[in-house]
Amino acid sequence: MKKIILFSLIFFAFIYGCRQQKQATKRYYVIEIPAEKNMAFKDSLTTINKYCEIVPANIFPAFASHRIALRGNTHEIEYFNNHEWATRPSDNLTTITINFFDRYKVFKEVDTRYWKIIPEYLFETTIYRLEIVDDKEGFLAHLNLEFRLVDKHKNEIILKHTADKYQPLEKRTINHFAAAISQMFYNELYNVSKKITTISEP
Fold first, then answer.
1. pLDDT digits over 127-171, tens only?
2. Residue 21, in any domain of the structure
3. N or C: which end of the chain has fewer CB within 10 A?
């Protein structure tokens, strides 16, 4: 009888101790449109009087899911256990692209799909790297991408823009990483738009 009582006390003490332990909180992050103060670009953009269909961003598989990648070696990555993207990055990047082109009127109109008209252009995005790099001196945000503007009628790429950007993080936090990726992507949309607006309309 004493053994049963002793066992019960030990068992309940164990359960109570487990409940008292603070569980790690899972945190979620978003890639989003930068703050207004970070969108003041030096040069204005002119409008191409054509319709453009925005193709959903294509992200290489290792970086496409909710998991946030940390690169510690040339061909080695790991994922954070308690830090994830709130949504798949492709959804956010596609939304940001549409917002940018709408905001700066790069085209006559943009959308992810047209039903009644055939747009003149397709805008494609490929993300090769979307990761934190663990550098000896700290964390770096790394974004490697390619934009392509396709003439839909001719089915040919008429413009290509690539960027492989690293940005040191002020603090070793995922929040700073998400903010850096958001700004870097928005900046490259501006850079490719400067090229787009030089295209001569037929």
1. 999 999 998 888 999 999 999 999 999 999 999 999 999 999 999
2. no
3. N
Strands (E), the chain: 27-29, 48-54, 58-59, 67-73, 76-85, 107-111, 121-135, 138-151, 156-168
Q: What is the pTM of this model?
A: 0.86
Task: Answer whether residue 6 is part of any domain.
Answer: no
Q: Is residue 108 part of a domain?
A: yes
Alpha helices in 42-164 (DSSP H): 89-104
Domain count along the chain: 1
What pLDDT digit, counting tens, does each position of 11-46 carry? 444 444 444 445 679 999 999 999 877 776 767 788
Closest CA to 177 of 82, 70, 57, 59: 70
Question: Which domain does 87 fall in, by range?
Answer: 26-196
Beta strand 121-135 with 138-151 is antiparallel
